[in-house]
Amino acid sequence: MRRGTGWPPLLTAILILPSLTTLAHGQELAPLLDLTRHPVGYFALMIFFVAYGLVAVEKAIHMRKSKPVMLAAGLIWALLGITYAANGQSAALEAAAKHVILDYGELMLFLVVAITYVNTMQERRAFEALRTRLVSLNLSYRQLFWLVGGLAFVFGPIIDNLTTALVMGAVVVAVGVGNYQFIVLGCIIIVVAANAGGVFSPFGDITSLMVWQKGKLQFLEFFNLFLPSLVNFLIPAAFMHFSVPTGAPASDGYIRKMKHGGGVVIALFGATLATAVAFKSLFHLPPALGMMLGLGYLQMYSYLLQRLGTRRNDEELAFDSLRQMRHVEWDTLLFFFGIIFAVGGLGVVGYLEVVSNFLYLDLGPTYANIAIGVLGAAFDNIPLMFAVLTMNPEMSSGQWMLITLSTGVGGSLVSIGSAAGVVLMGLVRNHYTFMNHLRWAWAIGLGYAASVLVHLWVNAAHI
C-alpha cells in the first residue's frame, strides 16, 4: 500500500518544508487507497487537465488563472472524500490533507512577506530610481535584456529563484515601461535564468535542497552543475536576443530618487531573507517563521516613519506597511492553493508514484531523470522529486546531479512550471502570459537538451 504525501509547488530555495523532510526520513502515514484504475482516479485526472487547459487560455477567455485550479482542487478532494468515506478510511485521507494544508500555509506566509517587501520597495520608488540609473547608462534594450538575465542567474542561487523573479520582474517593468515586447522577453529570460541559477546551489531551489538534505549530493558537488546551468540560460537567451527591440528606453529628463527610507527597506529585505535562512540552519525552525519576523522588522520601521512623518507634517515620509499587504497578488496565492491541492490529490490517487515506477524500472535512470524534468513543467517538480527520493533508486552521484538539473530547469518550459513563472504571471499579468511564454518553449527546450548533454559530458566521471 502507498503512503500519503502532500506536495507543494515549486518553492523558494530557502524554504524547507518540515512535512516533506519528515516524510522523507520515513514517517509512516496511514495507508491510502490505490485509485489509479478507479473511475474516481480517471475523473480526477480529467478535471485536472481541463483546469490546466483553462489556465493556458487565460488571456483569451479573460478568466483569472486561480479560478479553474481552485475549482479543480475542490472537486478532486471532494471525490476523494466521498470515496474514502464509503470505504471507512476518512482518517487516512484527513492525514494526507493536513500535510497539504501545512505545506500551503508555509508557502503562503513566505510569499505574503516577500511580495509585501516588493510592494513597499515600489512605494518607496526603489525601482523607479533604479530605472533612472539604468537609463543614464545609455544601455540599449538588448543590453538591458542580457543585464537582467545575468543578474537573475547570479541572484538565483543566492536569494532563491522565486524571490529573484519577484525583484527582477519589478525592475524589468520599471525599465521597459511602454515597451510591451521588451517586458515580455525580459520576464521570460528572468524565469529561465533564475531557475537555471538555482540549480547549482542547494539553496537556490527546493528540489536541490531536498537532494542535499537526503545526503544524495555533498555541498560542493552542486557546483559541478554550474556549466550545464549556464548553458541552459545562454542558449534560449541567444535566440531571444534577436527578437528584443532595438533602441534604448527614452529618458523623460526627470531624475527619480527613492523616498526617504527606501534604502533601509531594501536592507531589511536582505535581513529578512538572512533571518529565514538562520531560522532553519541554526534553530531548525520553519523558514516561514523567519520571514514573519522579517515582516515585524518592516512593521516597526513603518511605525517609526509614521511617527517621524507626523512630527514633520510630511505625508510622503510615512508609509503604512499594512496597506502594502493589501496589494498582495491574491490571484497568484490562490493559484498556488489550487495547484498544491490538485497535484496533492493526484498524488493521493497514486498517479505520480505510478509514473515514477514506470520510468525507473522500465527506462533506466538517465532517460527517467530527463523525462521527469519535462514532466515537472506540467505536474510540478516538487512532488516528482519527492517521489524519486521516496523510491530511493540506486543511482550514482552523477545521476543525482542529473535529476537535480532536470527538475530545476524543466519548470522553465512553461510559465506555470515553476514558482518563478507563476509569481511573474501575477506581477506582470498583461504582458507575461502562458501563451507568450509558450511561444519560446522551443528555444527553452533546446537549452534544456543542451544542458543535459553538457552535464553528461563534463560530469561523465560521476555518471
Architecture overview:
This protein is mostly helical and 463 residues long. Helices cover 71% and strands 1% of the residues. The protein has a two-stranded antiparallel ribbon. The longest helix has 34 residues. The protein is globular, with a radius of gyration of 22 Å. The two termini are 32 Å apart.
Helix-strand blueprint:
Layout (H helix, E strand, L loop, with lengths): L1 E2 L14 H7 L6 E2 L6 H18 L1 H4 L4 H21 L3 H34 L2 H11 L4 H19 L1 H15 L4 H18 L8 H8 L12 H16 L20 H20 L5 H26 L8 H6 L3 H20 L1 H13 L1 H15 L1 H11 L5 H14 L8 H9 L6 H5 L2 H18 L5
Antiparallel strand pairs: 1-2
Helix pairs in contact: 2-4, 2-15, 4-15, 5-8, 5-12, 5-13, 5-15, 6-8, 7-8, 7-9, 7-11, 8-9, 8-20, 9-11, 10-18, 11-22, 12-13, 15-20, 16-17, 16-18, 17-18, 17-19, 18-19, 19-22
* Cα radius of gyration in angstroms: 22 Å
How many strands? 2
Chain-averaged pLDDT: 84
| Helix content class | over 70%
Strand order of the largest sheet: 1-2
Cα(first) to Cα(last) distance is 32 Å
Q: Count every helix, treating DSSP H or I runs of 4 or more residues as helices.
A: 22
Low-confidence blocks of residues: 1-29
